[in-house]
Design brief:
The protein has 6 domains: 3-150, P-loop containing nucleotide triphosphate hydrolases (Rossmann fold, 3-Layer(aba) Sandwich), CATH 3.40.50.300; 154-226; 229-297, Winged helix-like DNA-binding domain superfamily/Winged helix DNA-binding domain (Arc Repressor Mutant, subunit A, Orthogonal Bundle); 479-749, Tetratricopeptide repeat domain (Serine Threonine Protein Phosphatase 5, Tetratricopeptide repeat); 767-872, Arc Repressor Mutant, subunit A, CATH 1.10.10; 889-903 and 913-1010, Serine Threonine Protein Phosphatase 5, Tetratricopeptide repeat (Alpha Horseshoe). It is mainly alpha-helical. The protein contains 49 helices and 14 strands. 48% of the residues are buried. The chain is 61% helix and 6% strand. The longest helix is centred in the C-terminal third of the chain and has 24 residues, at 916-939. This is Bacterial transcriptional activator domain-containing protein. Pfam families: BTAD, WHD_MalT.
């Protein structure tokens, strides 16, 4: 069992029981406190708990939002601890963090810990690990030890009193004792202590014992407390407000020396007065005993003690603990100063939940610190409490004084952040105007200005600003700009390079997973869109960001209505409605728009015309009010597309409005899709002239924008019905100018259905690995991505094998490449842990000690089984070599093989230098095969197909000169001299600006030499 939960009320000996069971083992003990509810704090303390040497823990970095980096650090230390014999990881008092984001962290830990390690969690409340999100938190993977097992029965009570206190009682008395106390260990301990002292016999004590466990403890605790010397009583009362008990803090509150406090702590622990040592010099008082002691302190004295504790921690620079004690001392002003000292650090380290907890009870003391109001505004914004964030920013601005200055600037920036997060450009513009008047250096807010221009739909201006900005945060906005310009493949490539490279505070629409889900849904890549949307949902849950969850849920609905395959309308409808309701609960009108657009399209497919119009108009009005002209154009497209799919004549007006508005913004995708639908309407209405002109333009722009996907895998705004797309292309084939390209696209959509004529497929391998279209592993009916491997080194082992000759490596080679900085013995331990994790992910049902089938190992080598594992790079290499060796490239074969090469080899792992030789080798084959295929297409008169092939190549490497030359030649052969000259000028500009040279070719306007 990877997880053992020890659950019972206070006083049942949970900690004592776990301590006894694990005492003779190599364990790590982590006593949790409420401050550990923040996942970054939890992981930092967990790392310290398992660190085997004082210097190994190091200084934690300052993560932003995502806890993947600190989790990796903790796992590295756990690997070393396990190698040293570590077995039990004890999380004591887990109830104080249960229900926080820490649950998700522990769920992830349970998935990746070595099989020899168990997590033992003690808790006063029932734990529900199945909600933690891990794969190893199901019923069968958890052992629960509850109150029924921890309570003493008659025999255990008899043995305990005899061994611990030397007290022997008759069985009849023991039976009554157990019945009266319900076997409660702490009550039996107190009774045993009293009997041992000889002050009472058992019958007297039982007669005096009040009903109810809390009352019984107070009675017995009072008896034990009264026995202590007065100096010990005073010390216990004073230090009961502390947690943990350290000599320095105890000395401060008890008004004694540190040495004297240390001696008293050791004395109390040795006497068994419910105080146990946890770390060297640090002690933990039993919860019930501490509660009992605190109830005996006068409220005024309690405040004095907390004030002294606050002063002690403040003097040590421990402002977080100082603030907690200051609040308990009813000194909110002092607490506010303490929190103000660390507010910026808490925010930048992603600990906004901790900042919220510390500022929740400050009340009017916040008003003395405008900067703290601003910090709290950011914290509540990151928790999706946007109205409260605005109120706090306004309060900070009002307190900044008539001069304004830095406080006003920060208050306005906090308000601006809310409007950017909620994508309300009209409101954001108003704040930016005030910032312009208040801040002399406008470059300070250039990133926010660029983002708002993108949100407005002022894409040309946004691009101009972005090109001139030297701000790294501004450049992180490039993918969003590319998406809104219709340059989806460029945006996708850029985002996939960013993914995993930066840990940022979640910013919803800018979050990579959510944006990739949007891109893939527009491109009709249903599976990839759904995968990224689910990642966003999980991330929103882990980071307690309901807005990210809302956006990602809506995009999961859009993913399910994209593509030309069967639509799961019920699930799509459910996700879209859930996102809509979530946006309404959050009170953010703007985020209703995306699910409304999806519902507009879905309502038409479900035959609900009234809902189509209702949802569509609602989306348009919402976006118009927000000032987002780009997305408003998309909402008009959604409504127009839904109406056009059933040939409603009113569709044309909506589509033309969308097209004009998107062109004004600077977008290319929406106008293209509008023309695709308008051409479909022309065709349905028998307008041959209009259809022919529009169809040729659509097909040309499809090539120029490299958006063949709108035909092969249409997005949710495209023509998803196969029959409708084929009819459109059949109409275009009747026109000589567009016939070749339309026929090429039609052939790729209309696959042969005569199974008898097709060769028998090769047996499906147990594992199919994709390396040329984003890394993915297909295992049976399950698709695994890099995120499915919770241990990154496990992925690297698999990738290294994919890149190796014959997919085999020696163990020593792997150790040198994966852990070059570590001694060989430590690297070997890490390797065994990572390999075990890899086996577990690839073969989850493999029985213990059963041989592995996929990743094979021997004493000195590791390799992929050639009969069970198939890699797309191998297929591409074999097919490309065969075609190139044939001398004259087969057209259909060449296009089919080229279609498998969507991205360079392992392009989503650019930092792995060992992948570069294979990446370069396959890129050369791709280049040679593309050029050979394009030349054959050109000779066969398939000019548009030749251009499309070269454009695909140039998207990977824009400096391949023969590809530019073939594009121009194809346009000339097709009779489009103007397009040929544009192609040459673009090549000339690119080479001169980027390389400082001119092309070696010139444009020959005579197309005769090229055939066709």
């Amino acid at each position: 069992m990877p997880l053992v939960c020890v659950e019972a009320d206070a006083g049942y000996g949970k900690t004592t029981f776990v301590d006894a069971v694990t005492a003779d083992t190599h364990r790590a003990w982590y006593a949790l406190t409420p401050a550990d509810r923040d996942p970054h704090t939890f992981l930092a303390h967990l790392t310290a708990a398992v660190t085997t040497t004082p210097t190994a823990a190091g200084t934690p970095e300052s993560p932003r939002g995502s806890w993947s980096a600190p989790l990796d650090r903790a796992l590295d230390r756990i690997d070393e601890w396990t190698a040293a014999g570590g077995r039990y990881l004890v999380l004591d008092d887990y109830h104080v963090v249960h229900g926080s984001p820490v649950d998700a962290v522990v769920g992830r830990l349970l998935d990746v810990l070595p099989a020899t390690v168990q997590i033992v969690a003690t808790s006063r409340t029932h734990l529900d690990p199945e909600t933690w999100g891990g794969r190893n938190t199901g019923y069968d993977a958890v052992r629960t030890i509850d109150r029924a097992l921890l309570a003493f029965d008659d025999d255990e009570t008899l043995a305990y009193l005899r061994s611990r206190f030397g007290v022997s009682l008759p069985p009849t008395v023991i039976e009554v004792l157990v019945e009266e106390t319900e076997g409660w260990p702490i009550a039996l301990s107190l009774l045993g202590r009293r009997l041992h002292c000889g002050h009472h016999d058992a019958e007297e004590l039982l007669a005096a014992l009040p009903a109810g466990r809390d009352a019984a403890f107070d009675f017995l605790g009072n008896q034990v407390f009264a026995e202590q010397p007065l100096d010990v009583q005073r010390f216990l009362l004073d230090v009961s407000i502390l947690s943990p008990l350290t000599p320095g803090a105890c000395a401060a509150v008890a008004n004694t020396t540190v040495a004297a406090a240390a001696r008293t702590l050791r004395r109390i622990a040795a006497a068994g007065l419910f105080c146990a040592e946890t770390d060297a010099g640090s002690y933990r008082m039993h919860h019930l005993f501490g509660q009992f002691l605190r109830s005996r302190i006068d409220p005024a004295r309690r405040r004095e003690l907390h004030a002294a504790a606050a002063g002690h921690h403040r003097g040590r620079g421990e402002y977080e603990r100082a603030a907690s004690h200051a609040l308990a001392a009813q000194q909110p002003e002092a607490a506010a100063r303490d929190v103000a000292a660390i507010a910026g650090q808490l925010l930048t380290s992603g600990r906004h939940l901790t900042l919220l907890a510390l500022t929740d009870d400050l009340g009017s003391a916040l008003d003395a610190h405008p900067a703290l109001l601003v910090a709290r505004s950011h914290a509540v914004r990151l928790s999706s409490r946007f109205d409260e964030a605005i109120d706090l920013a306004h309060r900070a601005g009002q307190l900044s004084g008539p001069e304004g200055g830095a406080d006003l600037r920060e208050a306005l920036a906090a308000e601006l952040a809310v409007h950017l997060d909620t994508v309300h450009p009209a409101r954001a513009e108003q704040v930016l105007e005030r910032l312009t008047a208040a801040v002399p250096d406008q470059h300070e807010f250039i990133a926010q200005r660029i983002e708002n221009e993108i949100n407005h739909g002022h894409l040309t201006h946004a691009e101009q600003l972005l090109d001139g900005a030297g701000n790294a945060h501004a450049h992180a906005l490039r993918p969003r700009l590319l998406v809104r310009q219709g340059r989806l493949l460029e945006a996708r490539s850029l985002l996939e390079r960013y993914t995993g490279a930066h840990n940022r505070i979640p910013m919803v629409h800018r979050e990579s997973s959510a944006l990739l889900a949007w891109i893939h849904a527009l491109l009709g890549h249903t599976d990839r869109a759904a995968e990224h949307a689910r990642t966003g949902i999980d991330l929103g849950r882990d980071l307690r960001s309901p807005l990210l969850t809302c956006v990602s849920t809506g995009r999961l609905g859009l993913a399910l209505i994209a593509g030309s395959g069967p639509t799961d309308a019920r699930q799509a409808h459910q996700h879209l409605l859930e996102a809509l309701e979530s946006a309404e609960r959050l009170g953010i009108d703007r985020f209703r728009a995306e699910p409304l657009m999806g519902l507009t399209v879905l309502a038409d497919r479900l035959g609900q015309p009234e809902d189509t119009l209702r949802f569509g108009l609602d989306a348009i009005e919402t976006l118009a009010a927000a000032g987002d002209r780009y997305l408003e154009a998309m909402a008009r497209l959604a409504l127009g597309a839904a109406l056009a799919s059933r040939h409603d004549p009113t569709a044309r007006e909506w589509l033309e409005q969308a097209q004009k508005q998107a062109l004004d913004c600077g977008d290319a995708l929406i106008p293209l899709l509008c023309d695709q639908w308008l051409a479909a309407l022309d065709h349905a209405e028998g307008d041959r002239t209009g259809f022919t002109a529009r169809a040729q333009d659509v097909l040309d722009r499809t090539v120029t924008l490299n958006l063949t996907d709108i035909w092969l895998t249409p997005g949710w705004l495209g023509i998803t019905d196969d029959a409708a797309r084929l009819a459109w292309l059949d109409g275009a084939r009747a026109d000589g100018h567009a016939a070749a390209h339309a026929g090429y696209l039609r052939a790729r959509i209309d696959r042969p259905t005569d199974e008898a004529a097709a060769p028998s497929p090769a047996p499906e391998p147990a594992l199919r690995i994709t390396t040329l279209n984003g890394f993915a592993v297909r295992r049976g009916g399950t698709t695994l991505t890099g995120e499915s491997f919770s241990r990154r080194k496990a992925v690297e082992i698999l990738l290294l094998l994919c890149a190796s000759e014959r997919h085999s490596q020696s163990r020593s080679e792997l150790l040198d490449k994966l852990w070059p900085e570590l001694p060989r013995d430590k690297a070997a331990v890490r390797f065994r842990v990572a390999l075990h994790s890899l086996h577990h992910v690839l073969e989850p049902d493999r029985a213990p000690r059963e041989p592995t089938r996929l990743v094979r190992t021997s004493a000195d080598r590791i390799w992929l089984d050639p009969d069970s594992v198939r890699i797309d790079a191998d297929d591409f290499r074999t097919d490309a070599d065969r075609l190139l060796a044939s001398g004259k490239c087969d057209l259909s074969g060449g296009q089919q093989v080229l279609g498998a090469y969507q991205q360079p080899f392992l392009h989503d792992f650019p930092a792995f230098e060992w992948a570069i030789p294979v990446r370069d080798e396959l890129a050369v084959r791709f280049r040679e095969l593309t050029l050979a295929t394009a030349e054959s297409l050109l000779e066969a008169g398939e000019h548009i197909a030749a251009i499309a092939a070269c454009q695909h190549l140039l998207a990977h490497d824009p400096f391949i000169e023969p590809a530019h030359e073939l594009v121009a030649a194809s346009y000339l052969a097709a009779g489009d001299s103007a397009a040929a000259h544009r192609a040459f000028r673009e090549c000339e500009r690119l080479f001169e600006e980027e390389l400082g040279i001119r092309p070696t070719w010139t444009l020959d306007s005579d197309p005769g030499q090229w055939g066709g």
